[in-house]
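[job 0417] fold request received: AAA+ ATPase domain-containing protein
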Amino acid sequence: MLPVDLLKEVALSQRADLNTRTQGLERKELEHFPVLKSHSLIISGIRRCGKSTLLVQLMKSRYPTAFYLNFEDPRLYGFTVEDFQKIDRLVKEGKHTELLFDEIQVVAGWERYIRQKLDQGNHQIVITGSNASLLSKELGTKLTGRHITKELFPFSYGQFCAIKELPKSPESTSDYLQKGGFPEYIKSEKTELLHQLFDDLLLRDITVRYGVRDFRSLQHLAMYLVSNVSKLVSGNNLRKTLEIKATSTVMEYFSHLEESWLFFFIPKFSYSKKKQLINPKKVYAIDTGLVSANSRSFSEDQGRKFENMVFLHFRKKYQEIYYFSDKQECDFVLCDRNGPVSLVQVCVKLNPDNLNRELDGLWEAMMFFDKKESLLVTLSQEDEFYNAGRRVFVVPFHKLKD
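[job 0417] inference complete; emitting structure tokens
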């Protein structure tokens, strides 16, 4: 437990620090954030993607008198659920009706306090967290039906162009492909920031949080994945390749890496859940700049990184994405709650050697899902192809809707 005077001092100093920060580029995500006293707003995303800056924008635009507290402040080590009673005292003293809590998931039992405040019905609550699974597990118990969750990613291509004052073009696409969207890196372009972020995610968000004993194996796995984005991976094969003791350990690391937002693992499409589980998954990283900075792949494979970038573009709109593979492969099957919506193939540059292969993957998927249209994303080419009443639109990345 902590003394109330310390909590007050920390809250005041954190608020003063936020007030000195610049707002930066306004995130368009703000337009879609609801204001509801009956529900808490959960903003979840990887470290350093801009959640704190977003809170600054929220405070200045909507909640100028909000109570704010970041629970990862070292001065709050030892904070327990009982200390929320002292937070209540500070909230009442300041007559705060809006509560903004950053990284609250580090406090065991935090969801009980939030539920209590929601039941009182006189507070608007915004929470941020950098661990997707930890938040979702807790929200599924005490906050069922009382929360709205929004994901926050590093800057999109459109936001990147706005910050850099660049026109949307193949040239700026290539620039974004190399640098990615982490706000601090875009401003400074100091590669060590992305090195440090990668290490912090492995140490703080995984090793410490989950009590991983074999950090070296986790590190080797993460380095392998970041060097092989857009490729198929399986727990059994990587167990052999990296000499990890058990396949179950690899799968456990996969889960931790995904929960920390560092990687995404998308399954092969099948109406059988069992087949989805047993087939290899394709791996994608949260940011192509993070890949550029940390990959140990000496052969610069722009095609795989380009596919990763296209995946991220669509992942911001669709939580459920698969790859399709039968005789040929289609990179992405985008799904909503009703099932498959769109089919997407990715190729940096179409040429006589790869054209038939890329189109055959789409034609096969279109037949399987009975779709009349599909999308093929390139770096700069634009075209259309027809086959048996079906049409493929070839669109350069910079012309996709942000």
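[job 0417] notes: DSSP finds 16 helices and 14 strands in the chain. The CA atoms of residues 46 and 262 lie 7 Å apart.
[job 0417] exit 0
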